[in-house]
Amino acid sequence: MNLCTANKKRCSLFFHFFISYKKSLAIGIAFSISALILWCYWNQYQHNNDVMIKESYTWRQLHTALNKKTADSRLLNIVQYYSNIKSNNYDAFVSMDLARRFIEKGDFLKAENQLKKSLIQTRDSNLQSLIRLRLARLQLEQKHINSALKTLTKIKGEGWIALVADIYGDIQSIKGNNKEARAAYKQALCSGALKMLVRIKLDNLPS
């Protein structure tokens, strides 16, 4: 009987404590959960930041190597292998650098393949638009008019209107559609052409 009474008293005291301090307990639990989430987020952020710093350093090394006059086919093969095993913005930059080198060597087909690969490597819409601009210009250089037009239609965003209009004007000029070409060139003159390009540079600066 005494044991039963003692248990009831303990239960009553616990219930009274819970009722009296339930708001404080709820706030404490909420803060604890928030702190745990914040800690997990910070750890993930630190990890991602470290990875991006390493990727940035690797890209700069490869970019410097590709810009040297001594860059040969062996180096191009090594860089190509590197760009094939990963997929992020810096790998897209590597593929774009390779495309530029292939253009300089006159190998437009390989350059086009590198640009198409770089589109898959990044999810950044602005960077994808920049890549598509280069791809459309390259396709136009090869007289692949329909392919260039198709590439241009996939570029979205007001900041790219002028650059798209410029290439579109070139296409219409080649096709002999001077009226359409003139309208496109006038549109290119009326828009702020470099806004998105500057945004890409800002977004990819190391933190």
Can you walk me through this structure?
The protein is mainly α and 207 residues long. Among the domains are: 54-123; 149-207, no CATH class. It is built from 9 helices and no strands. Helix 2 packs antiparallel against helix 3, helix 5 (125-141) packs antiparallel against helix 6 and helix 5 (125-141) packs parallel to helix 7 (161-174). The radius of gyration is 29 Å and the shape is globular. The N and C termini lie far apart (69 Å). The model is unreliable at 25-39 (pLDDT under 50). Residues 16-206 form the Ancillary SecYEG translocon subunit/Cell division coordinator CpoB TPR domain. Its main location: membrane. It is a single-pass type II membrane protein. The chain crosses the membrane at residues 24-42. Keywords: Cell membrane, Chaperone, Membrane, Transmembrane, Transmembrane helix.
Keywords:
globular, 207 residues, mainly alpha
Q: How is this fold's topology laid out?
A:
Blueprint: H1 2-67, H2 73-85, H3 89-104, H4 108-121, H5 125-141, H6 145-153, H7 161-174, H8 178-189, H9 195-203
Helix pairs in contact: 1-3, 2-3, 3-4, 4-5, 5-6, 5-7, 6-7, 7-8
GO molecular function: protein-containing complex binding
Keywords: Cell membrane, Chaperone, Membrane, Transmembrane, Transmembrane helix
Subcellular location: Cell membrane
